[in-house]
Amino acid sequence: MSPGARSLALHGGLIALLFALGFLLPAYHQGNLARIMVLATYAVGYNVLFGYTGLLSLGHAMFFAAGMYGLGLPMQHLGISALPAFGLGLLSAALLSTLVAFLALRTIGVAFMIVTLMFSQAGFLTILYFGTWTRGDEGFVIAQASRSLAGVDLTQPLARYMAALVLFSVALLLTARMMRAGFGQVLIGVRENEERTRMLGYDVFRHKLAAVIVSGTLSGAAGAAYALLFGYVGATFASVQYSIFPLLWVLLGGAGTTIGPLVGVIFMFYLIDWSSGLTNAYMLVAGLALVLLTLFARAGLMGEVRRRWLPWLP
Amino acid sequence: MTHRIKTDRRTLLKGAAAGGLLAATPLAHRFASAQSSAPIRIGFQQHSTGIGAAYGRWYGRTTEAAVKMINEAGGINGRPVEIIAEDDGTDPKRGAEVVEKFANQHNCDVAFGTLFSHVVYGSAPAAGEQKIPYFVVSEGHHVASGALNRYTLQPGITDVKSQVQAMAPYVAENLGKKITMIFPDFAFGHDHRDYFTAAIEAQGGEVLEHIAIPPTETSFTKYFPKIPRDTEVVYHVMVGPAVLTFVKELGEFFGPSRPELFGFIDSLEAVDLASPGLEFLEGTYFWEGNPRYAQADQSSHDKLFREKVGVDANGASVSDPKDVSTYAHMFGCWETLHIIKAGMEAAGYQGPDDRAKLIEAVEAMTDMPESDAHPQGPKRFNGKTHQVFGVQYISRVEEGRLNKVHTTSIEDTLYPDEVDYTTMSF
Amino acid sequence: MDFGPHLLLAVLEGAVGASVLALTALGLSLVFGVMRVVNVAHGEFFMLGAVVAWFVADTLAGHPAVGFVGALLIAPLVAGAVAMAVDRLVLKQVHYDPEATIVGTIGILYILQQTALMTYGPEARPVEPPFSHRIALPWFEWTEEGFEMFYPWGLSITSYKLFVIAAAVLILLTFWAILSRSRYGLLMRATQLDRETALAFGIPVGRVYSLVFGLGAGLAALAAVLIVPIQQAHYLMAGEPLLLSFIVVIIGGLGSVRGTVVAALLIGMSDGIISVFLSPTLSKILATLLVALVLVFRPQGLFGTKAA
To answer: Where would you tag: which of B7, B62, B145, B162 has the fewest CB atoms within 10 A of its CB?
Structure first.
């Protein structure tokens, strides 16, 4: 089977499976999976920059929040409907990523990490500063009535699940296609050895810039979708922990694999859900899982699968 | 080490089940033909971890005590009450997930217990979509503002707007008319800023300066120079782990000569008034949702409440006098659970199909006198706004304890309706 | 308050914060510089120091000074021991791979934080300072009669806060002396300069790494013991010190003690001083952006050398 066909089979199969699960799963898990898919989109976006390009950002929450507020504020204050508001969310995230890219890409390594963290912190504080409109950390609710797209009520469980699936599928297929094409290969080259890639004649800066913008916009799409599907916009989603989550998800699931991000989100979600029934200190379990992962499964779940059994895994 | 009552699911279930088992058997036959004796499942959304954890612990203890008492008296419609507690980490995302878990996984009849406003905002949409009655114990103005939905109610604790507004007359009359406000620079603080400024101006006073402090601040002295010299009253309402620092540094800043101080006990919930550095609070005033120290005119209801929850006359745990409770808020859980019981009995609640009837029954409630079910004081529920109103207390720190000096009327706390949830469909 | 006294107060308060920040950041800078790894759990060692200080002060009855001195001795040792265990069990096993270390230390962060929650609890608890007196500070004004000294309302500091500044200076000087004059300091500097050559010279690099990691955590814990009588010990207190330490280390330049101290002063003071002029949240936004822009236009920090 050619790589292209294999990739299509894998991703298409996954999407088909998720589609079927939307009808088969009991209400609780169906609801969980809808949330998971939106957050997995965020993780997929993060993976583009971290897993493929090798740039560790600690500020992605600002892109998620840009999408969230980019959709939420117009819907709340200007009465704009869901679809154009989603477009505004994407636009906000894209603009922010472009601005941040031009500034942050002048740094590398740990400095890049700190700069993205700082910009994200500034973003978080700005949301609080303009509390008159954003309602700051408390946030605001988007009325159930306005959360419908093309006549479909997105608050209905199945409609919501399918909307999340559409979002995730687009992100997944886009990433898969991008990584197989030349563009993606250059990004991997930048990750492996930036100097050598530059010497080969590629414009490393332009590629990194594009990676940041794609990554940021996908994260923003997830943020906008989250606000639309779950009805809440708040500064919590712009805080540091929401920048650490995608890092965790991608690392757990397998950085630099296409389905790793989804696996990571599912794993963390159910780990927390299951262990919170045992103890208050469920984050302890999460912490232990991370340490064990670091020691024994460095490449993450899908990364280990690729390393040991399926070297063709995209 | 402190003896800690672990409020995890199993402990609560054990307590409730034991109570239910004891109570249900002799009474079961009375209702056996009409209703099932399967337990009523109440989902308790608890802040066990995260920034609200100190409150979560006491909310858990109060819930446990209230359920025990309810089950010992026969439960609800003869059915024992079972509490299923889930930690939401004081996080709005997790809060929404927990509400869905209550509705779909745990098959709870209702959900209750959320305190922090941002978690309420994050979780309420899920409650509305799952059509599960959601009784929050938050103090936020969110319910009454109309931002939420018909399934969300706050019948057990008053909201910040009514609390703040009721303070203005006493402050203007007894403390001074020139105020400087110090508050955290987020929604909770802004609510205080907006409501109090309006209320004090209506009393002929004025706010000279608004000092908004960023949320993660750990040292406060640098903000105090902004307090104008001619301030008569400093109004403060800092919350979070740094409050003790705030109060200490305020004392250090002013030294021996200070203006009047009026604070909200939110600053010192779960904090011992005898902590070093708090001596300068002597002679200052606090809003108290429920007086922490047993007063001279203590009612039998407050005595019973303290006894059941395990709190002494100083508002601390009976097993550890250094473990101070969140007395000004936790009564909300007690009263809310009793309202759930009253509502279910009035509606003849049998199962999740009757959820709408339950809400309508609660919406029909109005005046609730002070009683064992409402130990904090008399209440008046507004069915249209889903928010309860009650008396507010003002106390003064005298010789290291808080003595009540003023009780407002319920009328002092009222404000015009901002929403009518009863016109909304289910 | 008038402008002059207000500024003085902001400077003094900033100095207290900067002192503690310098110590915490020094710990991180050391680990960063010598071992070239990012310890995301550094803030948790700070929190550990504060929590242990509370336990010690609570157990040792008597004058608060006894508990305080006890905490000063015990807390850094405990934090150091935990850190050395982490180094042996986790970091060594992944051969100090940068990415793996970040993930592993995030896991350690959660473990330490949750353990504190389970043992110490969710409340913020105070520790009494060994001594604390309010000292009113004078201010000078030029009037017709010449220079006049008076005591502006609210201009004061406490003796304990002055002690914190003095103690931090003392510790920093001691540390600098050890680093530049003693054999241990020589070993650390050699390992930082060139790991391979140090190995070739027979320096037990593995043991140096363990010690450095422990020392880094110990410094953070020491800083926490100093600050805990002013703030409280709380299981979530690690966030701010971690963030600020990272900023200080990057701005000051990797592994440079002088750079760390200068950056700590700058960052510790700037927040407070800017807030004299602007609203607090706005000044925090500006300070954060300023840090980012310094890094953007001078990635090696203020004292670091440009990467080869």
So the answer is: B145
Q: Please tell me whether residues B195 and B218 are part of one structural domain.
A: yes
pLDDT in tens, C27-40: 998 898 888 888 98
pLDDT average per 10 residues of sequence, chain B (426 residues)? 44 43 41 64 93 89 95 93 93 94 95 94 94 94 93 95 93 93 88 94 93 83 87 89 83 84 87 82 92 93 95 93 91 96 94 94 94 95 95 93 94 93 91
Residue A109 has pLDDT above 60, yes or no: yes
Domains contained in chain C, number: 1
Q: Cβ of B104 under 8 Å from any chain A Cβ?
A: yes
Q: What is the CATH number of the domain that holds B114?
A: 3.40.50.2300
CB contact under 8 A, C156 and B255: yes
pLDDT for B15 equals 42
- Counting the structural domains of chain B, the total is 2
Query: Does residue A56 contact residue A211 with C-beta atoms inside 8 Å?
Result: no
With contacts defined as CB-CB under 8 Å, which chain C residues touch A114?
246-247, 250, 291-292, 295
Residues B61 and B111 in one domain: yes
Of all residues in chain B, the one with the smallest CA distance to A121 is B216
Residue in the structure block whose two tokens are 């220079």: C147
Query: In this model, does residue A231 exceed pLDDT 70?
Result: yes
Residue C306 has pLDDT above 70, yes or no: no
**Do B213 and C122 lie within an 8 Å CB cutoff?**
no
* B270, B171: one domain: yes
Q: Are residues B173 and B274 in the same domain?
A: yes
Tokens 């003071």, residue? C269
Rounded Cα gap, residues A290 and A301, in angstroms: 12
- CATH code of the domain in which C69 resides: 1.10.3470
Determine, yes or no, domain membership for B22: yes
Rounded to two decimals, the ipTM of the complex is 0.90
Which chain B residue has the Cα nearest residue A284?
B49
Return d(Cα B354, Cα B344) in angstroms, integer: 9
> 3-state DSSP call for residue A295?
helix
Answer whether residue C77 is part of any domain.
yes
Whether residue B283 is found in the same domain as residue B398: yes
A vs B: CB pairs below 8 A = 90
What's the domain range around C76? 3-297
Chain B residues with CB-CB distance to A131 below 8 A? 185-187, 190
Q: Are residues B177 and B153 in the same domain?
A: no
CB contact under 8 A, C153 and B229: yes
d(CA C221, CA C138): 34
Give the containing element (helix H, strand E) for C71: helix C64-86
Q: Is the pLDDT of residue A219 over 80?
A: yes
Please say whether the beta carbons of A281 and C118 come within 8 A: yes
Record the tokens describing residue C29, joined without a space.
């800078």
Which domain covers residue B23, as residue numbers? Answer: 9-158+326-390
Which residues 4-33 of chain B have a CB within 8 Å of chain A? 8-9
- The A-side interface with B (CB below 8 A) comprises 26-28, 31-32, 35, 125, 128, 131, 135-142, 144, 155, 230-232, 234-237, 273, 276-277, 279-283
What is residue A129's three-state secondary structure? helix
Same domain? B184 vs B121: no
Any C CB within 8 A of B183 CB: no
Q: Does C179 touch chain A (CB under 8 A)?
A: no
Q: Is C22 a domain residue?
A: yes
Task: Tell me how many helices (H) and strands (E) chain C has.
Answer: 11, 4
Is C303 part of a structural domain of the chain? no
Bridge-based pairing of strands B401-407 and B393-398 is: antiparallel
pLDDT at residue C307 tops 60:
no
The pLDDT tens digits for C111-121 are: 999 899 889 98
Q: What pTM was computed for the model?
A: 0.88
C9, C153, C239 ranked by CB distance to B221: nearest: C9
CB pair distance less than 8 Å for B277 and C126: yes
